[in-house]
Structures are given as C-alpha cells and as structure tokens.
Amino acid sequence: MAHTAGTFSSLQTGPVRINKGYVYLLSAIAALGGILFGFDLVIISGTVAFFQAHFGLNELETGWAVGCINLGAAIGAIMGGYLCERLGRKKLLMICAILFAVTGGGTGWAENFTMFICFRMLSGVAVGAAALVCPIYLAEISPAPMRGTTVSFYQLSIVVGILLAYLSNYLLLNVEDNWRWMFSSQSIPALLFYFSLFTASESPRWLIRAGREFEAHIVLERVGGLDYALAEQEQIEKSFADKTRSQLADLFRKDAWHIVFIGIMIAIFSQIVGQNSIFSYAPELFKKAGVGQDSAFLQSIIIGITNFIFTFIAIATIDKAGRKKLLQYGAFLLFADAVALSAAFYLQWSGTWVLVFVLAFIGVYSATLGPVTWVALSEIFPNRIRGNAMAVATLALWIANFFTTALFPVMNQYFGMPVTFLVHAGICLIYFFFVRNRVPETKGRSLEEIEKLLQKS
Q1: Membrane spanning segments where (predicted)?
Q2: Residue 236 to residues 218, 383, 451, Cα–Cα distance (Å)
C-alpha cells in the first residue's frame, strides 16, 4: 500500500507514515454530512415568503415553520447519542443521509402545513444527529497530528452547505413552485452522501468497543501501517478496560463530570457570543450600514464568502497553534469587535464602519470558535462515554442557539443595539477567562492520551 510522506512519532518506536490520502477520503465523505447540515439550516431563508403565501400563514405560524427545526435538532442530538453507541458511527451517518433525502422532498411537496412542519422537524432530527456523529467519526478515524485539520473540514463543509443553499435558492427563484424545488434540491447531495458511505470504514474505536478488533486493526493499519495499528489498538483497548455499557448516569461520575462540564460550556459559549445575532438578523444590521433593502441576496453572499474564506485560517493553523490558543484569541477578538459594534451603533458612526465590524466579527468567529468548537467537542470526552457526552453537549448547543436567536429582537427592541452588543462583549470576555483557566490544550495527543490528561486534572 502506498503511503504519503506524512510522518510522526507515536508510542511505537520509529516514525509512522500516515496514509493521508485515505484519511482525507474518509474525511471528505463524512464532511458531506456537514454540507447537508448547513444546506438544511439555510435553505428555508429563500422560501419563507413563498410558502407563507401558499399556506396563508400568520407571523406566529411563519416563525414556528422557521424555528421548529431547532426542536427537531435537539431531539436528534438526544437520539443520536444512543444510536451512535448502539449502531455505530457509520450506520448513524447513513440514517442521517436517508432522513436528509426524504425530508427534503417531503418538505418541498407537503400537501398541508401540518405535513410541512412534520417533515421540517424530521429534517431537524437529521441535523441534530449529524452535528453529533460527524465530528466524532472524523476525530476517531484521524491520527493525532491531523485531527484538528480533518475535524475543521466539518465546519468548512457546513459553510459550503450554506453557500450551496444560497446559490440553489437564487438559481431556482424564477422556477414555477420555486419553494418546493428549493427544499427538494437537498435530496441530491443527500443521496450522494448515502451512497458514498458504502465506501467508508467504520470508526476503529467503535469497532473495538463492539468486540470487532480484527476489523478495527484493518482500518488502523490502512491509516498508518502495522506498527501504528498495533500501538493504537493497544491504547484504545486499555481505554475500554471497563466493558460495561455507557449510561447517562456515567456522565455525572466524579471522574467524568468535570470533563462533561467543560464540553457543555464550550458548546453553549459557541452559540451565545453573538454570531447568531449577526447570521440570523444580518439584513437589519446591513440596513443600518446603509445597504439597500432589496439586496438580501447580496448580503447573504457577503456573509457566506467571508465565512468560507476565514474558515481556511482555522484549517491551516489549528494543528500548529492549538485549540486553546485559537479559542482564547477568538474570544478576546470577538470581545473587542462587539465593543466596537456597540460604540458604532451608540455614536451612530457611518454605515461603512458597521459593515466592517460585522464582517470582522464573522471572520474572527469563522477562523476560531466556529471550527475549533467542533474539534474540541469531538476529542475531549473519554472513549467510553463519548456518544452520550457529545449528545448532552450538542443538546446544550441547540438550546443555546434557539434562545439567543429568539432573544436578539427582544433585546434590540427594549435595550437597543448598543446594549445588546455590550452584553455579547461581556459574554466573550467571560469565555476568554473560562478557556484560559479550564480548557486544556489537546493538540498532537491521541484521544486516549487526552482522556488520561483530563482524568488527572
């Protein structure tokens, strides 16, 4: 088997030659789940006016149609933790792919509003489960020196999915029954994702937990050769010395709860620092920046391109600079940017400055907290409880997402933009100190080494 020239030293003697092409292939397949995640969340942005008119919805019903996906995602996160451990990572990814394909067409061709809501919530279940299992799978198949990069691909794939959704909405805008075809277009990448998974390997860590050591050895050997496979398999088997099945109660054990707490905080802070306010209510912010009211598509493209470009900074630096450093830098820069936005609104600076600070906020988030959050969550939890712990963390993430998105217009109405962004600035500063004091650096360590490090802390 031909290996690329990537090398590193693990517990075994001598350097290991990593088959980077194979790792990147598996990463690309799993990242398709991220594309569908981003696509599914954003595709509705171009359909609202059309399905609202078709079903004759009032404002409350329209809000429910847009927001119900978050409830579905929370359900998907809860179910995903159980299914991830019982069925395996690969099978859950295949279930997500099927759900994405079915719910895309189902939402688009729903005969009534009740059916529309049901399919939209099922689509949310797929989003929530995919958000849980994709980062876990990417972390578990990646060698330590590549793990930050490969898991960051997941955030990049979400960004690509968002861009594809904007593009799909634009191209289908003048088609008859346009909103139906906009939703249905999701089924094409979903089917591609499903059939691609037949060529993917199962996570070697899940295989060892399931007693399928020989299959795990084959995957590990293909990743890094015989010496790498033997050393990694020994470490993984030691981490599973306790053969009892993971239960939710295990998350609250003395040796695990502090790790789970760190993961929950990382998930929550990733959603409340202010990016949801900007992503969800960009038109209002850009309107204040002097951008015309008829340029919603341009606004979306500007945000999407900025998001896309700056994600590459994280991919290029995360395995060099490390997770903790990027989270710290990101939190502090977002704090400074939120203060600047507050000042710009309070002092009524020109719209150009508001535009600059909004795009800077998106850029910083996309280069730091956005992708690093998924990397950190995928690797800090011990092997034995990873599925359930990731379920709790992503559930907290979706709940935080829902409340911050819902509270922004209320805060803006009662307190105004200056106070709203000062609140976000305060949250960013709190997160900076939390990362500095509680979050360990995990770059370059195997998942089993991280587990030992955190259990000692």
Answers
A1: 21-51, 63-84, 91-109, 121-139, 151-173, 179-200, 256-276, 296-317, 329-347, 353-377, 389-408, 414-435
A2: 14, 8, 11
